[in-house]
Amino acid sequence: MSPRREMVSKLRGESLVRRGLMRRYEGREPLRIAPELNVVKIGGHGIIDYGADVVRPLADEIGELAKTYKMLVVTGGGVRVRHILDIGLDLGMPTGVLAELTSKISEQNAIMMAVMLSRYGGMRIHTADLLDIPMLLKMGMLPVTHGTPPYGLYEYPPEVGMIPPHRTDTGAFLAAEVVGAKSCILVKNVDGLYTANPFENPDAELIREISARELLDLQMEDLVLEDKVVELLIHARNVHEVRIVNGHKPGMLAAALRGENVGTVVRV
């Protein structure tokens, strides 16, 4: 057998799956690319699908806030995602194909939000452009991207069912994590996380603060954010909390950016 060719490095000969090797690099602080950035995810189902009456005031609020706070706006999908999922599931499409199909919807919403924010420096960027964010912020731009993570056809199989587990909440969280953002705020159509669906159960109680592990242990039937965000939060290196606020109420996003205790915060 011919000798294996090696290059001199501390990982020479490693399989990259050895547990001892993993532990060797545990606890290292990653470089934070944009530590003052606030990632603001605009829900498709909870915000954009409501149209001008909700989107225009929120866009103006974001535009004004961008004069003070550094932001990356991330868009969700909404009703059109549900439509294509309905058809795709009915036709037996694999999970990776469903992920590829749904990604196009949040991209459309990103284009519309960028246009809405154009007079405030709004600029549509792609997921591959995240490393350009520090430069764009210094230029006074307000970057806008879509929230679907770029797994596409390589999307993870879900534990249950066929629906892609990494959707736009998860994409916003992963963007915040990779650039080392200051915060990750999910803008929805409710005041935060409730003990049950508040639209169906008027007795549902608002949860102001909860840990990720506690939330997972509750095994709730319905959540206002994706399960995958809560799972990833436990292992995150840069982002240690996610806040949920109501984008139908003017001033809630501003309060969250100021660090006030509004909505619901899910912490490590």
UniProtKB/TrEMBL annotation:
List the molecular function annotations (GO) for this entry: kinase activity
Give a yes or no for keyword Kinase in this entry.
Answer: yes
Instruction: Name the Pfam families for this protein.
Output: AA_kinase (PF00696)
The reply to whether Transferase figures as a keyword in the UniProt entry is yes
Entry's transmembrane regions:
none
The record's InterPro entries line, in alphabetical order, gives:
AceGlu_kinase-like_sf, Asp/Glu/Uridylate_kinase, MoSto_subunit_alpha/beta
Q: Which UniProt keywords apply?
A: Kinase, Transferase
Query: Domain Aspartate/glutamate/uridylate kinase: where?
Result: 37-246
The protein, known as:
Uridylate kinase
